[in-house]
Amino acid sequence: MNRKDAKDAKAEDRELLALSPDSWPFSLALLPVPIYMVGGAVRDALLGRRREYLDLDFIVPSDAVQTARTIANHYQAGFVVLDAQRQIARVVFKDATADFAQQEGDSLATDLRRRDFTVNAIAFNPHTGELIDPLQGNADLQQGIIRMVSPANLEDDPLRLLRAYRQAAQLGFAIEDETRSTIRQLAPLLAQIAAERVRVELGYLLSSPQGTPWLNVAWSDGILRSILHDDVTATNLALVAQIDRASAKMAEIWPQIGVELSSGVPGLAADSKRTWMAIAKLTCLLIPAISLSEIDELNVSLNYTRADIHVENSSVEDFLKEMKYSVAEIRAVNTILKFLPQLRKAPMSVREQYFMFREVGVVFPALVLVAVAVGIPIEGIATLCDRYLTPSDRVAHPTPLVTGKDLMQALNLPSGPQIGQLLTAIQLARIEGRISTAAEALEFAKLHQKS
Ligand SMILES: Nc1ccn([C@@H]2O[C@H](COP(=O)(O)OP(=O)(O)OP(=O)(O)O)[C@@H](O)[C@H]2O)c(=O)n1
Ligand SMILES: [Mg+2]
């Protein structure tokens, strides 16, 4: 078997894993009777759909937290109580997690009837291999339909309104008509939902090309309006779609930039799905119309009309804070918005490029992606991309000729902001070709200090 076959075989195994207790990382014998597996793992296994990693959801009539604790202890796996009141706990294995939740209501059927969509309300009894499907979820699965269990269930937890679009995008499903019109009617309720929960669902829609058309549907159904307020225009949605096109183009020219765009933002949980690509799309979703019109003045063709552009006044940063985005993400969006106007002002001086790279750092791929999406020609950013991808490039990746300590000793200076300023001046002199050795750097610093 060659390597590719081995990899594919492993992926196929994984599809079956969820419904094959033999391949779970814990023994069936440790599970109480009765117990049921529910949710995404059952749904995806029935679809033969690959999951990135095995996350199993179980419900038990009682002692859910105790069940999880027993398994975690037995395998010395991680253990977290997710919700003490509702009795939900998680066991964390090396490449799988299992959540155990107390059954809601007095029977399995009651629990299933309280869920969001029929395709998510199928239970699997691992002891007998039986599927319990009182809402005909499997029939909807086979037809590719997201159907609400009931309007009241959507009202009970309005996050489900947004989940419908996210799951339709992920599964390649359609939203059933009545469900969709109920969602439209209930759309304003989404405003009540905790920002963190909304952010996760939105993140999914922003992180993959399949999300883009559904983001548009959610927008036209009035769903995004209750989350993003009135500041987002059709232009913003059009820009998000441009990101998909721009990223394909960029990945073709600079494969490494493509790889970085699909990787996670450092400092965020690996399962948060927030990639640089998602950051770029988020920026496009929020970019104030006023900056767009500035770009537009000098711009190449964009797929929107100037009539779409309106000046709005709310701050992107306030919104991101309200949505509890991380400091790293807020910084990234701000950085992109800050440097976008400079990028279109080609060519940038070497000095400008140096300061840009210094401030932008790892955000660079997302910045150039947004630049291309808003219509800045690829040629305009090509030099910057080449510099970014060349480790020996001194503008993008400066290495110090001398250290702050060298300067303090040679010039007999105390530590303080002056040292940093001298180091920057040395770097600039070096990239402009005025000096090239450590001795020249010290000499330059002496003169520079006097001037
Ligand atoms: N607002 C919510 C969230 C979850 N669920 C139920 O809880 C299950 C597990 O939730 P979650 O893990 O968030 O979603 P999955 O459907 O499992 O999807 P995936 O893990 O693939 O994202 C769902 O299938 C659904 O039955 C629900 O009814 N309402
Ligand atoms: Mg799940």
What does this entry look like structurally?
With 451 residues, the protein is an alpha/beta fold. It has 4 domains: 1-138, Beta Polymerase, domain 2 (2-Layer Sandwich); 144-228, Hydrophobic Seed Protein; 232-389, no CATH class; 404-450, no CATH class. It contains 23 helices and 9 strands. It has helices at residues 3-17, 40-47, 64-75, 108-113, 137-143, 151-156, 159-171, 177-186, 195-207, 211-220, 225-228, 234-253, 255-261, 276-286, 289-297, 316-322, 327-344, 350-360, 364-373, 378-389, 404-411, 417-431, 438-450; strands at residues 36-38, 54-60, 78-83, 88-92, 96-102, 123-125, 130-132, 145-146, 174-175. The strands form 3 sheets. A 5-stranded mixed beta sheet has the order 1-2-5-4-3. It has a two-stranded antiparallel ribbon with strand order 6-7. A two-stranded parallel ribbon has the order 8-9. Helix 9 crosses helix 14 (276-286). The chain is elongated. The chain starts with a helix and ends with a helix. The structure holds cytidine-5'-triphosphate and magnesium ion (MG). Residues 39-40, 55, 57 line the site of magnesium ion.
What's a quick, concise take on this entry?
54% of the residues lie in helices and 8% in strands. The chain is of the alpha/beta class. Helix 7 packs antiparallel against helix 10 and helix 12 packs antiparallel against helix 14.
